[in-house]
Design a protein that fits this description.
four-stranded antiparallel beta sheet; 4 helices; 32 strands
C-alpha cells in the first residue's frame, strides 16, 4: 500500500507526517503551505517545519501515468525501450570493432619488432664471429715459418689468405713422401708384432667406466659435437668441432677450455690436431678448410680446395700435408705450410660424392668412402684409384686404417662393420650390429690392438679375435667421435648430446 500526500493526492517522493493532524504530506508542498499560513491544512491548527516528522521508506514506485495503462500505450513504451536497447547494442559493436582493429595493429607491430630484434641479434653474432676471425695477428705465432721464396700465409691486415690454385706434385714432394714412408715402414718392421708393455690389457679395458663428462664446450642453442680428435703427442689435449660452428680445444687434465676458435659459417664436421705443433685443422660444409693457431687463438689460413661441403680430413704422417674429401666428388692434397692445393682428383667414372677420407699409416696410399657405398683405395704418388671394396649398402660413414698397415675398418648406413685385408684386397670379417645402428666413428688405438666404434652407442673390439670387450651407453644422443688415449689408458667420446665424456679404470 502506497503513502499518498493529503494535498496533491499523489505518492510523495519525500513523505513526512504532521503530528497535529496525523496526515501524510509531500515535504516540499507542506513546507510551502506552512511558510504562507503557519497552520496545518487539514484542521487549521498552528504547525511549524520543526514539528514535521520524516517517514523513511524505500524508493517509492510511482503509479503508472494514465497514458501507460492501455495496451497500445504499453506496446509503445516497449517499442521505445527495444529501440533504445538496439541503439546501445549498435554502439557497443562499433566500439568492439575499433578495439579489435587496435589490437590487431598492436600485434602486427609486436611481430615486426620481434623480427627486427632477431635479425639484429643474428647480425651482431655474425659481426662478432667475423671480428674474432679478423683479429690482428701481430705478434701471434704462425704454425710454421714460410720460406721467403713462398708467398706469406697471411695477407695484408692479418687476414688469412684464401688460396685454391693447384700447384702440382713436384718430384721433391713425391721424394719427401717416399722417404717418410720408408722410415715408417722400417719402424713398423722393427716393432714387429710386439705390443707395447704399457698398453692396457683387454681384461682391464673391460672394467672401464665413465669418469668425467663435460657439457659446456659448445653452444646449447645449437647442440651437438660433430667431430673429435686428440693431440697425438699429448692426449690430454682434446679437439672438438660443433654444430655451433666453433672449434674448441679442451685440456683434460686441467678440465678447462684452452681455446674457442670461431670463423666457420656452418657446422664443423672434421677436426685434426697436429702431432708436433700447436696447430689444429677443421673442415665444414661451408666448403672451407681452416688452419688455426691454438696459442694465438686465431685462424692463420683458409684453404678453399673444394666447391662443395668438405666431408673428410686426414693429416699426412709428415705433418706437412692435408688430405680432404668433398661432396663435389673430388679429393684434394694440400700443403699446410703455404695453404696451396697441390693436386685435386676425382673418379669420373663413378660420379659420386665422397663421404670420408683417411691416410694409410705409411702415407703413400689412402682410402675414401663414397655416397654409393664404395670404398676406394688411391695411390697418392700416381693419383690413381688402385683398388675398390664393394660390399656395403648406403653411404660410407667412416673408415680407419690400423697401425699395423694391414687392416682397414669401414662403416656405412647398413648397420654393419667390415674389416678388409689390404694384402689380399678382400673382406675377411663383417660384424653385424643391431638393427638401425648408425656407425659414425671408427678408430684403432695407436698399437692397432683395439678398434672403437661410435654411433648409437660405443663399442670396443679386440683385433684378430674381433670380440667385443666394452660397451658404453652413457650418451643420450648419437655418438659422433671416439678416440683412445696413449696406450689406451683412457677412452674419450663426443656426441649430439653436447657432452665430451672420458672413460677409464
Amino acid at each position: 500500500m502506497s503513502l499518498v500526500c493529503a494535498i496533491s493526492n499523489e505518492v510523495p517522493e519525500h513523505p513526512c507526517v504532521s503530528p497535529v493532524s496525523n496526515q501524510v504530506f509531500e515535504r516540499r508542498l507542506i513546507e510551502k503551505y506552512i511558510a504562507e499560513n503557519g497552520t496545518d491544512p487539514m484542521n487549521g491548527q498552528p504547525l511549524s517545519e520543526e514539528q514535521l516528522v520524516d517517514i523513511k521508506v524505500s524508493h517509492p514506485i510511482r503509479p503508472k501515468a494514465p497514458s501507460a495503462t492501455s495496451i497500445p500505450a504499453i506496446l509503445k513504451s516497449l517499442q521505445d525501450e527495444w529501440d533504445a536497447v538496439m541503439l546501445h547494442s549498435f554502439t557497443l559493436r562499433q566500439q568492439l570493432q575499433t578495439t579489435r582493429q587496435e589490437l590487431s595493429h598492436a600485434l602486427y607491430q609486436h611481430d615486426a619488432a620481434c623480427r627486427v630484434i632477431a635479425r639484429l641479434t643474428k647480425e651482431v653474432t655474425a659481426a662478432r664471429e667475423a671480428l674474432a676471425t679478423l683479429k690482428p695477428q701481430a705478434g701471434l705465432v704462425a704454425p710454421q715459418a714460410v720460406p721467403a721464396s713462398q708467398p706469406a700465409a697471411a695477407g695484408a691486415g692479418g687476414e688469412p689468405m684464401e688460396i685454391s690454385e693447384q700447384v702440382g706434385m713436384t718430384p721433391e714432394i713425391i721424394q719427401k713422401l717416399q722417404d717418410k714412408a720408408t722410415i715408417l715402414t722400417t719402424e713398423r718392421k722393427k716393432r714387429g708384432k710386439t705390443v707395447p708393455e704399457e698398453l692396457v690389457r683387454a681384461e682391464d679395458l673391460s672394467k672401464y667406466r665413465q669418469v668425467a663428462s663435460h657439457a659446456g664446450l659448445h653452444s646449447a642453442s645449437v647442440p651437438g659435437i660433430l667431430s673429435l680428435d686428440l693431440c697425438p703427442s699429448d692426449t690430454n689435449k682434446v679437439l672438438t668441432g660443433g654444430a655451433d660452428k666453433n672449434v674448441v680445444v679442451f685440456d683434460k687434465s686441467e678440465e678447462q677450455i684452452v681455446a674457442t676458435l670461431k670463423g666457420h659459417t656452418k657446422k664443423v664436421t672434421s677436426v685434426i690436431y697436429h702431432p708436433s705443433q700447436s696447430v689444429v685443422f677443421s673442415a665444414s660444409p661451408d666448403t672451407t678448410i681452416r688452419v688455426w693457431s691454438v696459442t694465438g687463438g686465431n685462424c692463420v689460413q683458409v684453404v678453399r680446395a673444394h666447391e662443395a661441403g668438405v666431408t673428410g680430413l686426414s693429416l699426412h704422417a709428415t705433418g706437412d700435408y692435408l688430405l680432404s674429401s668433398s661432396e663435389d666428388q673430388y679429393w684434394a692434397f694440400s700443403d699446410i705450410q703455404t695453404g696451396r692445393v697441390l693436386t685435386k682428383v676425382t673418379d669420373e667414372s663413378a660420379g659420386c660424392a665422397l663421404t670420408c677420407a683417411q691416410f694409410h699409416p705409411d702415407g703413400l696410399i689412402f682410402g675414401t668412402g663414397t655416397a654409393d657405398s664404395q670404398i676406394k683405395i688411391w695411390d697418392l704418388k700416381e693419383r690413381t684409384n688402385v683398388a675398390n671394396f664393394p660390399g656395403h649398402s648406403g653411404p660410407v660413414t667412416s673408415i680407419a686404417f690400423s697401425e699395423n698397415g694391414y687392416y682397414l675398418a669401414t662403416g656405412a648406413q647398413d648397420s654393419s662393420l667390415k674389416l678388409w685385408d689390404l694384402r689380399k684386397l678382400k673382406n675377411f670379417k663383417t660384424i653385424t650390429l643391431d638393427n638401425n645402428y648408425e656407425v659414425k666413428s671408427l678408430v684403432f688405438d695407436q698399437s692397432g690392438t683395439y678398434l672403437a666404434v661410435g654411433g648409437s652407442d660405443i663399442r670396443v673390439y679386440i683385433c684378430k679375435q674381433w670380440s667385443e670387450v666394452l660397451n658404453f651407453t652413457d650418451h643420450t644422443g648419437l655418438v659422433t667421435g671416439v678416440a683412445f688415449g696413449e696406450n689406451a689408458q683412457f677412452l674419450t667420446s663426443a656426441g649430439m648430446d653436447r657432452s665430451l665424456k672420458f672413460y677409464s679404470l
